[in-house]
Amino acid sequence: MEYFPPALEALTEQFARLPGVGKKSAQRLSFFVLGLPDEEARAFAEAIVTAKRTISLCPVCRSFTEGEGLCPICQSSKRDESTVCVVADPKDVAALERSREYNGRYHVLHGVISPMNHVGPDDLHIKELVERVSAGGVQEVIMATNPTTEGEATAMYLSRLLKPFGVKVTRLAYGVPVGGQLEFADDATLTRALEGRREM
Fold first, then answer.
1. Which class is domain 1-35?
2. I need a surface site. Which of 3, 24, 151, 195 has the fewest CB within 10 A?
3. Average pLDDT of the chain to the nearest whole number
4. Residue 84: what pLDDT?
5. 62, 128 in Cβ contact below 8 A?
6. In angstroms, rounded to a whole number, what is the distance separating the alpha carbons of residues 159 and 98?
7. pLDDT at 200 over 60
8. Count of alpha carbons within 13 Å of 106, Cβ hemisphere only?
9. Residue ranges covered by each domain of the chain
10. Alpha helices in 55-186 (DSSP H)
11. For residue 173, what pLDDT is reported?
12. pLDDT band (50, 70, 90) for residue 142
């Protein structure tokens, strides 16, 4: 037996489709939206529709941009064009930008190679990366995919693909997190931390 009108159930179902949102959270979000004044609810709905209509992929790095033009990072003359950081998703660009340590350009693959999920190299934006590197000007490509099996496999595949172009291919160092304790770190993390050690 359904307790709520079909429109509310449908709204809850749509919220439940969002990553990390369970049935209870979806229901809370639905109630929140229904409690909004009409003007705010319309603005919320319009923001979703406008974003879907106007946001596209940057023709250079494949991150998000508005319209058909370059994204703000690719437009910036202050960014180092000789370094390209390869990430799996646009959200990874946001994470790296928060660090304020990286000043190069990006390339977004929109996924990683995952045979189990039927994702191969042709399903990602790898061809565009190879074209960027082969055009010249790029001296270093930083692999910043996640340290998962799929992320590692993707980084290794790209490394082999880019080596013939004479560019330096590096991998982000992984290891013990700041504030972490050695006794709680797993074997793989400690191995990575030792491999990535540097002189002080």
1. mainly alpha
2. 3
3. 89
4. 96
5. yes
6. 26
7. no
8. 29
9. 1-35, 79-200
10. 72-75, 90-99, 126-134, 149-162
11. 78
12. very high
Structure token pair of residue 12: 């809850």
Distance CA 192, CA 70 (A): 36
Q: Give the three-class secondary structure for 164.
A: helix
* Cβ-based burial of 77 (10 A; exposed 0-12, middle 13-18, buried ≥19): exposed
CB 16 within 8 A of CB 26: yes
Could you tell me which of 171, 168, 163, 160 has the C-alpha nearest to residue 196? 171
Distances (CA, A) of 166 to 9, 44, 105, 130: 56, 49, 18, 12
Token pair of 5 as six digits: 């009108």
Angle at 95 between CA 91 and CA 100, to 5 degrees: 140
Q: Which residues contact 12 (CB under 8 A, 6 or more apart)?
A: 4, 23, 26, 27, 29, 30
Report the Cα 181 to chain-centroid distance in Å: 28
Q: Which two tokens stand for residue 98?
A: 């928060």
Q: Thinking of the domain 79-200, which architecture would CATH place it in?
A: 3-Layer(aba) Sandwich (3.40)
**pLDDT digits over 145-194, tens only?**
988 889 989 999 999 999 999 999 998 877 767 676 666 777 777 777 77
Task: State pLDDT tens for residues 31-40.
Answer: 999 999 999 9
User: How many percent of the chain have pLDDT more than 70?
Assistant: 92
